[in-house]
Amino acid sequence: MKTLVFIRHGQSVWNSLNLFTGWVDVDLSEQGVQEAQEAGRKIKEAGILFDVAYTSYLKRAIKTCHYVLEESDQLSTPEFKSWRLNERHYGALQGLNKAETAEKYGADQVQLWRRSYDTLPPLLDPSSPESSTHDPKYRYLDKRAIPEGENLKVTLERALPFWNDHIAPSLLKDDVVLVAAHGNSLRALAKHIENISDDDIMALEIPTGQPLVYELNDDLSVAKKYYL
């Protein structure tokens, strides 16, 4: 069996405040640090030894990756970062309180923005100072590739090339792979790996800081899936 471990970053400061986060580069909360450390201890207890780790450009995922590797005594594991593993971009919703937004636009509309496969959130104005086009992390990226808002469909389209070019080849050569990323970038990849329908993906929730283990067949189909 080929082994793939997903971990959604530990609780972030904005998770704790119930804010839409997306590409805003917020840090882990104290609880989030503890979640990531506990995830590393669970991985160590399970005897999982990684050959490679992949994470995003956002520090809540990067730090989660580091805590997991540190607590499992695997800090020497080669690590690669990609913007393609970033969280879904929530557009003009970023920074807004989810409950207050539901009061303003209605709970059903906000649920569609949050969970629907192909409904876009209100887009961010590219001229806004909040646009990621102004973030030096993405200075080497074609500005046309930087989103101003994404649904899960677009997030998958963005993440899939990284899966095909890096993660899948690692698995096919029998590397044990860690992907430390975000709720929606991992949901998007899970949709692809598990062949989840557009409707059923709305119900999938990946909790913060809990290692999700996939045991994959030679064709990368799922043989077994479980949380540690």
TrEMBL record:
Q: Give the family this protein belongs to, as stated in its UniProt record.
A: Belongs to the phosphoglycerate mutase family. BPG-dependent PGAM subfamily.
- What species was this sequence derived from? Vagococcus bubulae
Q: Give the protein's recorded name.
A: 2,3-bisphosphoglycerate-dependent phosphoglycerate mutase
The top of its lineage is: Bacteria, Bacillati, Bacillota, Bacilli, Lactobacillales
Q: What is its EC number?
A: 5.4.2.11
| HAMAP family cross-referenced by the UniProt entry | PGAM_GpmA
Q: Which reaction does it catalyse?
A: (2R)-2-phosphoglycerate = (2R)-3-phosphoglycerate
Gene assigned in the entry: gpmA
Signal sequence span is none
| PANTHER family registered for this protein in UniProt | PHOSPHOGLYCERATE MUTASE (PTHR11931)
Q: Output one GO BP term.
A: gluconeogenesis
